[in-house]
Write a structure and sequence with these properties.
Layout lengths: L3 H23 L6 E5 L6 H17 L2 E5 L4 H10 L4 E5 H8 L14 E17 L14 E4 L6 H12 L4 E4 L3 H9 L5 E5 L5 H9 L2 E4 L3 H10 L3 E5 L11 E13 L4 H12 L2 H7 L21 H9 L11
Parallel strand pairs: 1-2, 1-3, 5-6, 5-7
Antiparallel strand pairs: 3-10, 4-7, 4-8, 4-10, 9-10
Helix pairs in contact: 2-9, 6-7, 9-11
Protein name: TRAP transporter TAXI family solute receptor
Keywords: Signal
Pfam family, one: NMT1_3
């Protein structure tokens, strides 16, 4: 035994050193820092993306954070070009980007953008001051000043077209959600048409300070929009805002977190694992993360999944077809 102990110790120490070296090698090509493209301050993308970035950075021992951007359309371009490692986007703009129809880069097929995980549905909702007398879409007067969020955002891309389809004539205004909420309160806007996860921070803040109407779609308006645009039926629960007395009809698009396809597989595997296995922590960042669960990967029919993300899903019993993996 005395003659074997040193050899045993040597084997154990050697094995530990090899394991340590292997772990180090696995991270050798990881980025030392990362940035997440979000959207304007006051919107859910900013709160969700910044909180998620801090969570990932803390847990993986990296430097990372969220950055204000123009939203989903710009995030696709920033990730595709390698200017940002991660971004948050919506399926409508994602479909345009991979088909070379992005308004920011017409004709450019953005093929360096991969899906990581589902976030939540983005409801399209409308708010006006109660003092305006606007209680329905048909109440919106001709020439109304409507804020649609940042230029080229999901809201700005789809909401004006939806309202035009429903016969609304308006003056189009752009800006960050917080700014638009302030302009609505100050009487500089008549309506704000939001496309953002609920509760929208700007609306929650606004209804503390004044009376607000959350305007829902009628059944006919809902049917018209569902037939004409890549959206799904959605219900805004009455519990979302103190203003709502009952659930409100709306439409929505799904959001996904995206990554540059050329990022290391092991890195994206660990980021996906961390996110998908800690939903309690994600919900503490923003309650919309309740739907940031692996079962909802089925709502991505547009972007290929990053191989690192796909590996985690497949290891945990979630099927992804080969043609949906980069």
């Amino acid at each position: 035994m005395r003659t074997m102990m040193p050899k045993t110790l040597a084997l154990l120490v050697g094995g530990a050193m090899l394991a340590s070296a292997s772990a180090h090698a696995d991270r050798a090509d990881w980025p030392e820092n990362f940035t997440v493209g979000t959207a304007s301050q006051g919107g859910t993308f900013f709160v969700y993306g910044s909180g998620w970035a801090n969570f990932v950075a803390d847990e993986l021992g990296l430097s990372g954070g969220g950055e204000v951007t123009g939203g989903p359309t710009q995030n696709l371009a920033l990730v595709h070009s390698g200017d940002m490692a991660f971004g948050l986007t919506t399926m409508g703009p994602a479909s345009d980007a991979v088909n070379g129809k992005s308004p920011l880069a017409p004709g450019m097929v953005m093929d360096n953008v991969c899906a990581m995980f589902p976030m939540y549905e983005t409801p399209f909702s409308i708010a006006a001051l109660s003092s305006s007398g606007i209680e329905s879409i048909s109440d919106i007067p001709d020439g109304a000043r409507i804020g649609f969020g940042p230029a080229a955002s999901t809201s700005d891309t789809y909401f004006p077209a939806m309202l035009e389809t429903l016969g609304v004539n308006f003056e189009r205004r752009n800006g960050g959600w917080s700014d638009l909420g302030g302009q609505l309160q100050d009487g500089l806007l008549d309506v704000v048409a939001f496309a953002a996860g609920i509760p929208i921070p700007a609306v929650s803040q606004l209804e503390v300070q004044t009376d607000v109407n959350i305007i829902e779609f009628t059944e006919d308006e809902l049917a018209t929009v569902l037939d004409a645009y890549p959206v799904a039926e959605f219900t805004i629960p009455a519990s979302t805002y103190s203003t709502l007395e009952e659930d409100a009809r709306a439409v929505s698009m799904w959001n996904f977190a995206i990554a540059a396809c050329d990022l290391p597989e092991d890195f994206i595997y660990e980021v996906t694992k961390l996110t998908m296995e800690n939903n309690d922590r994600m919900r503490s960042i923003h309650r919309s993360a309740e739907t940031s669960i692996p079962e909802n990967i089925v709502h991505n029919t547009v972007l290929p999944f990053h191989p690192g993300a796909a590996r985690w899903y497949e290891e945990n019993g979630y099927e992804i077809s080969d043609d949906m993996i980069h």
